[in-house]
Design goal:
Keywords: Signal. There is one protein chain. By secondary structure, the protein is of the alpha+beta class. It is about 25% helix and about 35% strand. It contains 4 helices and 6 strands, in the order αααββββββα. The protein has a 4-stranded antiparallel sheet. A two-stranded antiparallel ribbon has the order 3-4.
């Protein structure tokens, strides 16, 4: 009986080791820049604000894409279709993008992690617009 329990447990461990894990989904920025030279990224968007050695890789912190965006006021609609009471005032959004680039010793971007970003309602994020060329809908 004990032999069967150990055999079943061993078989379960072997089968558990055979499962595959789906690769992490890339964001649009990583899809655009992974595998590209970091020099091209920094030439196009500006130098990093900090860097840290991590084994054979370097982690670069970058911030940029500064812009102010005006968001108009929104209003409720009355039953007759005319404009009703104001539901939110007009405002200015201060946009910027912060990313962390993992760069190999041969200066190739291995991964891009979005650190600070702002999502467009129903569209791409600000970092995707700035760094990956995505357009807001």
């Amino acid at each position: 009986m004990t032999l069967r329990v150990f055999a079943a447990a061993g078989l379960a461990l072997v089968l558990a080791g055979c499962t595959t894990i789906a690769p992490m989904q890339q964001n649009a920025v990583e899809a655009r820049w992974a595998g590209q030279p970091a020099g091209i990224f920094f030439a196009q968007f500006g130098p990093p604000i900090a860097d840290v050695q991590s084994g054979g890789d370097t982690l670069y912190s970058w911030k940029g894409g500064y812009r102010n965006r005006k968001v108009p006021a929104t209003y409720a609609k009355k039953a007759d279709g005319s404009r009703g009471k104001q539901t939110s005032p007009a405002r200015t959004e201060y946009l910027s993008c912060s990313v962390q680039l993992t760069v190999s010793s041969d200066y190739i971007i291995r991964s891009v992690r979005l650190v600070g970003d702002r999502r467009h309602p129903g569209g791409p994020s600000w970092c995707e617009e700035v760094l990956a060329g995505a357009k807001a809908s």
